[in-house]
Amino acid sequence: MTSDLEWMQLALAEARLAGAAGEVPVGAVLVKDGVRIATGRNAPVATHDPSAHAEIAALRAGAEALSNYRLDGCELFVTLEPCAMCAGAMLHARLARVVYGATDPKTGAAGSVLDLFAQPQLNHRTQVEGGVLAADCAAVLQDFFLQRRERARATAQPLRDDALRTPEDRFAGLDADRFAPNYIADLPGQRGWRMHYLDQGRPDAPATVLCLHGPGRWSHQFRHLAGLAGPRWLVPDLIGFGRSDKPKRETAHALDWHRDMLLAWLERLQAGPVLLAPAEGAGELAALLRAAAPQRFVGVLPVPESPDRALRAAWQAPFPDRGYEAALRAWGRGAGDASGPSPAQATVWVANAMGYFAP
User: Fold this and answer.
1) Active centre residues (catalytic)
2) What is the per-residue pLDDT across 188-204, written as a single tens digit (0 to 9) for each?
């Protein structure tokens, strides 16, 4: 029979997978009669679901596996003390036992902030035990937040007086939140303006695709491409758009300057060979890139567009007011409600893109 320590090790493995995906690293394992029934890990960021805690995921999977919303006789092992939401779900599920690792002094509902399991008014009693592999569970969390703080410090850049930076809450709830942001501000000739970009896929992938958004758009235009298996996806927000800094003067947005920034950026990332993927309106910039460095680019494959009127709010998100819109005045706002490829188009398009790299 597997011991509490061994079950908690499995929960820790789930926590590490959550951390690798950019979620707060919490993992859970549901057990009945010494047999693993289900596992779960934190995923509220990826799923845009505040209830997607590791414990809830394990309870849902376990209930489905047992074909019963009551989980009588089951034990749940979780790396962090449950919050009130999860504790309530455990009581409703009639768990026999809950074992957790690290305490949570901010939201813990098994004794740290409050103890729902000890409420005499409730008609079910669940046995609770804390502190199993507590140091290991706490270390996973501490390492995650330490790395996140270090990344924040590394990407923090002072904002120039002649530029604006869109508040992050303007992007809340958009699919782009699934992807880890990257920033760069020290390229030759960049003038200290920060550029945001996505870098998805292995750096040593056999193919690299550079996605160029159209006028008035940003990296959100490629939400159905970035992350698909196969190539390394590089998706910049050109300076003046998206999460990048927004110089206040229209003269800062010359195409040849953007070309030079992108070429220096590709050199910094050691990317190549590269397939250019321009969306509608980005063809001129793609042509300038290819003319300046023909040896770097293997071809140009325009990106299909799908109409989607719901995307208007996403395209307006980077521009809270007219002061942010110098790039829009220099480049234009783009065509209609073009939104980039649909999921179905994306799958076909990727297959065509990979053909450029076939031996």
Assistant:
1) 55
2) 999 999 999 998 887 77
